[in-house]
Flavodoxin-like domain-containing protein (Thermococcus barophilus), 169 residues
Amino acid sequence: MEMIRHIILLIPFSIGRKEMKVCIVYDTKRGSTGIIASWMGEAIKDVCDVRVMHIGEVNTLKDCDLIVIGSPIYYERPLKSVLEFLEQHQDELRNKKVAVFVVCIAEIFGHAGKAYAEKRYVGALIKRVPGKVIETAVIKGWIRKPNFSQKVVVQNWIKELLKNLEIKS
């Protein structure tokens, strides 16, 4: 039996001559959004300068080229702390490349659940970002144990986001 191996070549991503700095910023209530943010950072750490930070650790976003912001969904809305963070950092987010993601269980309701999550949950984040949000994601969360099948989904999403930025540059 012949074994086939897949090799993924990751080339450092740069804008002009400098390496891209990606800041993944999140808040979490029970840890799932933090785990997902760390999976994202792990996926791109070899191709860019990446920092994964809880919103409470953020001093400034001025040196970030791409800012990815994530929130879990509780009681039908993103965490208030994430919404306030977006309001407080309006000036720093202006003219930046911004992507947002939410972590929820809406996908268990199929396509309609995901569409609802994109409109209501992601929409609540987008409204608070000055300028254009370049990418969004609704990520399937979990209640008790981490859903490790989402690791590949999350890592592919962030890699594709960087790939699309490289193509547009």
In short: The chain is about 35% helix and 25% strand. The longest strand covers residues 66-74. The chain has one domain: 18-164.
